[in-house]
Amino acid sequence: MAEGRGVEGAGTGAEVADNDVEGQNAVQLVYRPGAADTLAGLRVRERVKRTGLLLRWVFLVLWTGQWLLSAVGRGSVDVVSTVLFLFVVALVWGYPRIQAAHVQRIIGWQGEYRATVSPAGITCRTDHSTLIQKWSVFQGYRETAGHFVLLSRDPNIMCLDVLPKRGVREAGELDRLRAVLDQHTPRV
């Protein structure tokens, strides 16, 4: 019986030690996500992927060329074509903002987010859900002035995790968070 207790106690001690080490390296973030956070993530994704950004610019150049050619061909500016051109410019310019507002409607109702970044991965809890992601899900991260944006491994980067720096309670924790991210996923 004594041997059983000793082995059992040793296993529990090792588990406690692992939890203590993970607890020391874990960084807690508490925040309420906003549309600006999602917009920052979408902009990072555009810069990394480049295809969407390139397509938007090509689309805008083609519409500008069409508008200019029609104006030169007629010798005057057509009101309908100008209004349509301005609508397309506003749509191309505003698309990321529209997308960020849509994402905010999807996630905003969940309230406060409590994210834990640890050597095991990222755990994000709200009052309604818990999401656990291992580091193998991410291809890397990029740091902006106000966010850490983690990009998924899939070719289209369909999943983004945006960790706002304002969610960290102490300034020293930002350095710890950056160290955990650097240790487990590359910067892109």
Biggest sheet, strands in spatial order? Answer: 1-2-3-4
- Most strands sheet: 4 strands, antiparallel
Structural class: alpha+beta
Shape: elongated
Topology, element by element:
Blueprint: H1 2-25, E1 27-31, H2 35-49, H3 51-74, H4 79-107, E2 113-118, E3 121-125, E4 130-133, E5 138-143, E6 147-152, E7 160-164, H5 171-184
Antiparallel strand pairs: 1-2, 2-3, 3-4, 5-6, 6-7
Describe this structure in words.
The protein has 188 residues and is α+β, with helices and mostly antiparallel strands. It has helices at residues 2-25, 35-49, 51-74, 79-107, 171-184; strands at residues 27-31, 113-118, 121-125, 130-133, 138-143, 147-152, 160-164. It contains five helices and seven strands. Strands 1-2-3-4 form a four-stranded antiparallel β-sheet. Helix 2 (35-49) crosses helix 4 (79-107) and helix 3 (51-74) packs antiparallel against helix 4 (79-107). The chain is elongated, with a radius of gyration of 24 Å.
